Amino acid sequence: MSAPDRPQPDRPQPSLTERRKAATQQEIALAAARLFAEHGAEGTTAEDVARTCGISLRTFYRYFRTKEDAVAPLLAEGSRQWIALLAGTAPGTPPLTALLDSARASLTPAPGRAAEALDWTRGLLRAMPADPALRDVWHRIHHDAETALRPVLARLAGLDPEGLDARLLAAAANTAMRLAVETWAAGDAPPAGAAALADTAFRRLAGPLLPPA
């Protein structure tokens, strides 16, 4: 008989100050995304975003360095959800199955993961070619996501988190997810299309690495 699972320690809950800060950041991010969609990144200033939120410019800069940084919480939300789902995968699940299931779940609209979030991402990705600073935010988010993925995937695959194999796996998985979302954003498919493209990307990535049948 296997030993019973040890109870996991409860994670500390965010303080009221932290929750208020997160709510303010999200409000600023949504305002920036709406203004970018209506006027483009070039046609939007930090003052515009602050005025829309009803805050001072000084308050805006307490939260974000630039107007492009203001949309980072929206762009990063999908990666955070994906990595959290992946981290919650049951031990013994094959890594490819874990990647497919978590990517599909994080990109499928559901309560708490509204289709609107993917719509914002699509609009922001389409604005990136005209705004290098916005593109830099996107790539920085994915650099951070790759770093966060490494220990999660290393645990699932039984790898050394600091080893080359774990680094390659995290880089490949993160790139597959990023390209799936970028490809979806460039077209007109509904939100469900993003999950389908992620599924395809992971399967094609795994294909050359699988042993011959």
From TrEMBL:
Q: Which residues bind DNA?
A: 45-64
Tell me the superkingdom of the source: Bacteria
- A Pfam family that the UniProt record links to this protein: TetR_N
Region (Disordered) residue ranges read 1-21
- Keyword terms of this UniProt record: DNA-binding, Transcription, Transcription regulation
Q: Which InterPro entries match?
A: Homeodomain-like_sf (IPR009057), HTH-type_TetR-like_transc_reg (IPR050109), HTH_TetR (IPR001647)
Span of domain HTH tetR-type:
22-82
Native species: Kitasatospora cineracea
DNA-binding as UniProt keyword:
yes
Give one GO molecular function term. transcription cis-regulatory region binding
Enumerate the SUPFAM superfamilies for this protein: Homeodomain-like
Q: What is this protein called?
A: TetR family transcriptional regulator
